Amino acid sequence: MGAVGAEELMKMEKMQAPSAREEKILVLVRLRPLSEKEITADEATDWECINDTTILYRNTLREGSTFPSAYTFDRVFWGDCSTTQVYEDGAKEIALSVVSGINSSIFAYGQTSSGKTYTMTGITECTVADIFDYIHRHEERAFVLKFSAMEIYNEAIRDLLSTDNTPLRLLDDPEKGVVVEKVTEEILKDWNHLKELLSICEAQRRIGETLLNEKSSRSHQIIRLMIESSAREFLGKENSTTLSASVNFVDLAGSERASQALSTGARLKEGCHINRSLLTLSTVIRKLSKGRNGHINYRDSKLTRMLQPCLGGNARTAIICTLSPARSHVEQTRNTLLFACCAKEVTTKAQVNVVMSDKALVKHLQKELARLESELRSPAPASSTCDYVALLRKKDLQIQKMEREIRELTKQRDLAQSRVEDLLRMVGCDQDSRQETGRNHNSHKQVSDIWEDEYSESEASGVADLHRMKNGVKKSNTTRFYDTESENNSEYLYHPENNEDPTLSDCTSSPLPIGKKVVRSYSGKSLEENAGATTEDSDEYCREVQCIEMEGSSRFKNFESHALSNGENEGTLALTYEDGDVTGQEMISTPVNGDREERRIQNGFTYGALEQRLNNVQKTIESLVSPYPDAGESSLRSLAEDMSSSRSLSLARSRSCRAKLMAGSSSPSLEKGEQIESTPPNGFEKNFPGRPEGFQKKLFSYGTNTSSLSRNDSLSSLESASIKTSADEDITSIQTFVAGLNKMAKNQDYKLITLKRM
Ligand SMILES: Nc1ncnc2c1ncn2[C@@H]1O[C@H](COP(=O)(O)OP(=O)(O)OP(=O)(O)O)[C@@H](O)[C@H]1O
Questions:
Q1: Smallest Cα–Cα separation from 203: which of 185, 186, 221?
Q2: Which residues neighbour 226 within 8 Å (Cβ) at sequence distance 6 or greater?
Q3: Spacing, Cα 346 to ligand 1 middle (Å)
């Protein structure tokens, strides 16, 4: 180590101080050979060191397998291995850190008679010998070695270099940490002096005879060697600095079992103190091994308090765990190994300790003072004050702006809240009104059902949500409806038992939904031609619905289809029922929105609910077709070219037509032909000559989408048609008409219309 002057000191401060060396405690294990006593007692040994780092317990069968059998440490020494080797291969590097200004500590830990004193005596001598050697080789530095020795006996600190038995006090020094008050410090002169001091310590230390050890140490011994070094060339000068560090040689008293040591009286009391302080040490080590979180109970014993810097503090530390190989001590050996396992996880943070001379320190402090004074004298530039004012003003403006925003948002929130309340009130009124309507206009309920079918699935979705909010949702035995027009597809619940759509508003006052319709194919004994498409506005509103065909017997069957369409060119939906029983569900949809309809039917309706609704619709239609007496029940026949036992029905309605129907429900004085008048498609005259006047009206009102035909002058939008008549004389004309339609369809590369007999 060379001279450390001011420049070098700064360099060291920069390099060493910030990078305080963090490292784990070095853990060495020394397994002594069986003692003569143990050999005499025919003790067996179950421990074996299989290499330089691993010790193995071979008798796991005997002891059970709850403990590990192999333990690995930084280094393991066994058998005849000398203390010098333990020092050279293990403790030396750490012990000699002291000459570089780094605190270091070497501990010996283990059960009684395991060889702690034997080991530490050798380690101390080796270290001091090496220190002397180092000093001799570094004459450029002036070294001062201060030797002190203490013991902790029954929780009292004694000075081993003094004959005074007065316990020493531990003090907390703000700079040095924990110090032992008034402890004797001998300036170590030479090797002989060391030997002399060590002899005094040995003589002073409390040693007692136990069954396990004739010279059992009854106290923890701490030999401390403080080394201060300064560069000779700077000695006495202003800028001289000193490296100061100490090395501790700690020979702990051995843990012992009273039952094994057979100690009584004073020995027993000593043993209790020893075990208690060792327990504290173990606890501190265990806590440190898990990190530095939480309280570490250094103050629970004099030992841990004195050694606090060595345990996870500013020091490099090595612990030599000494073991007895005897089988009778296996439990204590295991405890020692577990302690060692914890200790190797503890991290210390050592750094070079530099002490400045008083003069150097004064000079340094003067410089620092001058710097601070000059800072105070020169006031801050005016511009910076302005900056602060501007900054404050800017912040004030920001705060004002945010307050305005808060007020605005609060206003909006209140408004929205009152809107919600209004809507909830409205829904409540609608419910009441609707119930009233149900009571007063029972005869019109069937028409309302039609309206419900449509309204509930379209425009009512918003109300539905409010209604749900208000009335809650019953999930059992309910049917779900989805608002197909709403992007988020909100749903509400329908209760089929009540035959009541909870979303329904007053049907008489609600606007007609645009682009919605219910289409239903119907056939039965008393089915008459009915309904119609008006020409007025039909181009805009009329939707075409594909008919439902059902293969079946020649006899008439109840057949219902329910179709829903949603907007121009959207898909259609149909369900078939046979003989009143549900036989299946069939859906026909156009490619445009077929998937959406499919989702609706799959997720929404249940057969029961739909059947109920269809029945209502059916009743309504029956009530509407009743004004046509000429549609006799026995005369419904449809002519087909190639089929003899099936039927085909379709019904297309425009919005205006439905409006009439709705209006008609409250004023059922429909005159024959009023709703079924329509304009024949172009080409009809050509392909359908000689038609009877009445047939033409009935035909188009019931079976075809006349508006699309007339608008497009083609059959592109006609996918199917059904034709019904109550007059035998119309049969020929119908056949001709169908042939004409198919001819037109064929010419336009469109699919042929299939007509089936019913
Ligand atoms: N590695 C070793 N090789 C040979 N003999 C040893 C070794 N270690 C210890 N001994 C012997 O074992 C006996 C007990 O050793 P020592 O007194 O050092 O144990 P201890 O752990 O300090 O016991 P205590 O805690 O009771 O003071 C001594 O006679 C010592 O010479």
A1: 221
A2: 144, 145, 146, 148, 185, 244, 245, 246
A3: 27
- Strand-pair partners of 168: 157
ipTM above 0.95, yes or no: yes
- Please tell me the distance between residue 29's alpha carbon and the centre of ligand 1 in angstroms: 14
**Residue 679 assigned as binding residue:** no
Mutation choice for ligand 1 from 113, 121, 207, 260, CB with most ligand atoms inside 8 A: 113
- Asked whether residue 748 is marked as a ligand-binding residue, the answer is no
Domains in the chain, start-ordered, CATH in brackets? 6-358 (3.40.850.10), 380-513 (no CATH), 520-599+611-747 (no CATH)
Q: Find the mean pLDDT for residues 339-362.
A: 85
Average pLDDT over residues 490-503: 36
Which phi and psi (to 5°) does residue 245 adopt? -155, 160
Nearest to 321 by CA among 612, 115, 484, 464: 115
**Is 332 close to ligand 1, i.e. is its CB under 6 Å away?**
no
User: HSE on the CB side for 568, CA within 13 Å?
Assistant: 5
Which single residue is written with the structure tokens 């080409």? 683
Chain Cα centroid distance, residue 16: 43
Q: How far is CA 171 from CA 168, 176, 246, 427, 753, in A?
A: 10, 10, 17, 82, 111
Q: Which atom of ligand 1 is nearest to the CA of 108?
A: 21
Nearest CA to ligand 1 atom 15: 115
pLDDT at 22 over 50: yes
Give first-to-last CA distance, the chain, whole Å.
Answer: 118
Establish whether residue 278 lines the binding site of ligand 1, counting it when its CB lies within 6 angstroms of any ligand atom.
no
Is the confidence at residue 294, as pLDDT, over 70?
yes
Residue 177 CB contacts under 8 Å (≥ 6 apart), including other chains: 308, 309, 313
User: From the CB of 215, is ligand 1 less than 6 Å away?
Assistant: yes
Q: Phi and psi (nearest 5°) for 503?
A: -90, -5
Please list the helix, strand and coil fractions of the chain in percent, rounded to the nearest 5, in that order. 45, 20, 40
